Every structure is written in C-alpha cells, then in structure tokens.
Amino acid sequence: MADWYPWIVLLHLACAIVFVGAVAFEVIVLESLHRHFDIVTVQRIEQVVMARVRQYMPVVVILLFVSGGMLFDIRCGGFTCVGSRFGNWLLLKVVLAFGVLGVFVNAMWAMRHGKMDVCRFKHTHRIVLALMVGIVFLAKTMFYL
Asked: 67 near 8, Cβ under 8 Å?
C-alpha cells in the first residue's frame, strides 16, 4: 500500500478541498445572502444548492474517510504511533474528523426527514467549518509540533 501513498494523499487532499470548500461556501456566501434577499428567495437558493451537494457529497465524504484511514494505517503502522507526539496529534485529527462525520450524518438525516430548518442549517455548517479548520491546522502542523 505504501507504493500508492502519493495517490492516496492526492485523493485525500482533493476530497478535503471539495468538502472544506463546500462548507466554507455555505457559511461565507450562502449565509450572507440573508442580508440581501427575502427569506423565500434565500431558501430556494439553499434548496437548490443543497440538492446539488446531496448528489456528490456522500461519495466525497466516503472517499475522504477511506483514504484517511489508509493514510493513518501507512503513517502510524496501525496504532503503533499512538503515544508519540506525532501519533497523539494524528489521533486528535482523527477524533475531529469523526466529529465532522457525526455532524455530517446528522445533517443528512435531518435533511432527508425534513427537520433541517434555517437555524440548524446555519449552526451545522459553522460547527463543521470550525472542526475542519482544526483538522487542516493539524494536518499542516502535526509534522512540526
């Protein structure tokens, strides 16, 4: 599997960029529309955007977690690195990632069952964005901390 490492990293980074980019777009751009348009227009825009996101985001998230698991196995040798400084930072990154997954699954469930209101939509995306910023920070610094 180590021979595939560069390709797995590339897949993982591409999926992370798509996921973080989509969440950042929703928080930074979509939320700002509420100040400029009436609620019906904004809700319609959000519905259209979310319909598109529901088409591809589950695949992106699955690939992100599968590739992340493979990278964890390669870099950590199973769980042998846990306890080292690098291993602990990596484990924290994994915990944050599973936090994102939990929020993501909860949001998908809420959307499918018609329980995603404006407040929940807004807070869900803010929480995910904050967790993702933490993950990106750790991903870029854990080799140096």
From this structure: yes
Contact criterion met (CB below 8 Å) for 129 and 27: yes
The first and second tokens of residue 141, run together, are 């610094």
Using H for helix, E for strand and C for coil, what is the string for 15-50?
HHHHHHHHHHHHHHHHHHHHHCCCHHHHHHHHHHHH
Q: What is the residue type of 93?
A: K
Q: Would residue 95 be called left, alpha or beta, if left means φ above 0 and alpha means ψ between -120 and 50 degrees? A: alpha
Average pLDDT across each block of 10 residues of the chain; the chain has 145 residues. List them in order: 90 95 90 88 88 89 95 88 91 94 86 82 88 94 86
CB contact at 8 A, 138 and 93: yes
The H or E element spanning position 80 is: none
What pTM was estimated for this model as a whole? 0.84
**Tokens encoding 44:** 């319609």
> b/e map of 49-88 (b: 16 or more CB within 10 Å)?
ebeebeeebeebbebbbebbebbbeeebeeeebeeeebbe
